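We give the entry.
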Amino acid sequence: MMMSLALLPIVSNAQWSSNPAENVAAITSITAQTSPKVQADHNGNFYIAMFSNADNYNIHAQRLDADGNHLWGEEGVLVSDHEQNSWISEWDMQVDHAGNCIIAFTDIRSGEPDVYVYKISPEGEFLWGENGISVSSSSLFEFEPKLCITDDNNVYVTWNRQDETISATMIQRITPEGELPWGEEALMYSGTEKYINPVIVESGNNITLAYFRETGPYYNKIRHIYTQKFDSYGNTLWPEDVLVSDKPGISGWTKITAASDGLEGIILGCRDDRDGNTLSNAFVQRITSEGNLVWPNGGIELSTDQTQFHGDACIAGMTENGDVVAGWTFKDSGQSTGGVKIQRISQDGERVWTDDGVTLSGLDNPNSLIIDCNLLDNVTYVTFARNQTGLITQSIYGQSITSDGNTGWAEDVLISSRETGKTDPKMSEINLGQMIVGWIDGGENTIARVQNLKLDGSIGIESILNDDATLADLSVDGETIEGFNKDILDYTLVLNNTEPLPVVGATSEDANATILISQTTTVPGNATVVITAEDGTTQLDYTIHFDTDVSFTDHKEAHIKIYPNPVAECLHIENTQMINSVEIMDLTGRTVWEDDRYNQKMVSIMINDLKSGSYYVRINHCDIRQVVKK
């Protein structure tokens, strides 16, 4: 029934493309994919998981590296093929601090919808067994799990429990080893009202929960938002649940969005029709780690425009000075066309980017919908869909917003332009300089596709230009200069004849580098070789000095042998004539070593004290040879 990977699968090359019409397919071996989730592991890799309703709503997952390569093969991992309902509820995926993929969902393997949690290692191993962990032994209807990971790497999951008599919020803790310290029944959080649609964030080693309390009949529901903090034993840490908002007009279709404030508090977002004009308003609220509201009951509305319909608040995060950034989709009063806005709320509850926020995609653009937003170093990164028709998207874009509310990129970045239609797009957190967007791509097979978006506003793999500006060969009249070394930039050659003029040739180590040769016009004179690396910045200048000084005449009648060359320590010289003197000079002609006490045909000289580089050896004050000291 299950497939687990005992061995690392072969890495499949897919790779991000810089062409927005060529996005990476996550898994191609299954069709009819739906409801994707994407997450980052903070080590440069990403996870994407999805259902496939070709047969049974099986769950599949894939792991991608920073370049978009499949790390679990082209077929990915089959997480579960247990029996599912004919419909699926909301589910969740997170990544723990060890890089493991945590997946929570509902199926009916026990006969009733129950919640199960799986832990899959980066190598594809099922760490909590091939059937995952059942977080509750209840036979009641349970659905819509949400996850968070605490600092001590415990997994917490919250979900809805419902039957004819109760609507409760459930919470369970799972240790890294897969144990349930709160028992198989889990913690039920309920009261006289319905406690529903919970969300959860980490608060150090504790958790903070937010949920709706609902009263009234289905046609006139009254919903208020509450929050509470729990420790690792399941104890509440605030004296009473904190009332976040009791403003009217929260509909039955509305969800709570949540994010950590990074200080063990929670940021919440929602929307309501507190004005009673049938046009909802998006708002945010922050609750400190001590359970105090930062802003008044009901939070701060992201826009004061009462002529537009405002969707759920999408929370980017909190800046270093305590401002909260959030985005949302807005629509005209008839909800026929939509756009995307972003707003920054100060600690004092002021709307920083005007009373209406920054418009990223206006109503005059093709119908738009926000996907998600991230905050890093006071810059907000937003992704959104355009050409939206119902639930079908045609194009996906990205944009960055600087701390002063200006767009950071010259134009919106086109992430996907495939004309097959897209549904349910999701965006990951920022992961070592990039994030990914995943969605279900329409067309013949209906599969999940993904694309990266980098912080510089580009997509695809960065093209790393070579910075090698060295030469592979340097020649005069077709012959390599004796003693040539790519790291030596200056050479001196003594010529017997001044006509014809010597011709310098050069070959680069990197074929993509460019070479410019300036030939000498006189002897004595210089020739230069300027080589520029592929990166267009790195440059080296090689110089060849030509001379006709009689003291540098190379006597061909002398049969001299010098070895080894290059030399590290001991240089040997052999001559058919008697050796009386040896002089070693650097490339400027300066004598660095000499001895005239020889009277033999073979000498050995220790030169280990000389610096590495090219030198000339003059024998008997006339014969010149060039050597390279390692």
